[in-house]
Amino acid sequence: MLLICGALAGPLFTTAWFLVGLVHEDYDPMRHAISSLSVGKFGWAQDANFILTGILTLAFAFGLWATLRSSGGSIWGPLLVAAAGGGFIGDGLFITDPLNGYPPGTPVLPVPPTRTGWLHLLFAALVFGLPAAGLVLARLFNKQEARKWAIYSAVTAIIFILLYLITIAGFLQVDGLANYAGLLQRISLTIVLAWLTLIAVYLLKTPSNSRTMGRN
Known about the structure:
By secondary structure, the chain is an all-alpha fold. It has one domain (2-213). 69% of the residues lie in helices and 0% in strands. The chain contains eight helices and no strands. The longest helix has 27 residues, at 43-69. It is globular.
């Protein structure tokens, strides 16, 4: 059941932000951050999305830990996934400041950022726990001679890091990127959450490989 939670986290998060975005007036998914969906009349829905996604991700982290622990495996992968889960929950509890001109009439950058906004950014940074976990698991897959999964995990981690750094540059109003910051954020998160889903499905479908991973 804990591994199933990992399989559900990504699809739930992606479906929810897509639907919530449809009911926000003047919201441009190409430009505006997913976190900005927490601002306004239906902001509670995105807050709930963050929190539920975080809970599911934390549950998966425990399932991954149990899988690896059974054979004395490394704790770093589960810890990094758990950090990302905590980040989602924190983002749901602390609402972002207006960003990149949303809601309409607000500055593109909050000046100065509020305490809640700073906390939101701090928790948002924990999403980097997922690509870090991908690199850890890539090493385990490589030792297990599951080369395709090792390459997939490593490539996903690298692509996410690069895209998300470009996304941050867009939200900081770097020329030529601000109008596409929302799109880049969505692409990067979809890539890494798809990896999380597929890893969970892989472990569910191949329990013998799950046990083998714990020995690496």
